[in-house]
Amino acid sequence: MYEKLTRARSGDPLNHLYFAYGSNLDSAQMRRRCPSARLVGAAILDGYRLGFAGQSAAWGGGVAT
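Above: the chain's sequence. Below: its structure in token form.
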């Protein structure tokens, strides 16, 4: 099921949507970084794309741009 969001669900300026990929999808890691965060669900951000324009010297994989 998909729900189209046109803006964050609250008028609170500290409440915003966070789009993640890769290791940033790890729920334990996110809880350590931002304990009050809650999962909304998977999403598609129309008009944007994820690109990999470089390579990480730390782990040898692509880095997002």
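Residues 1-65 form one domain.
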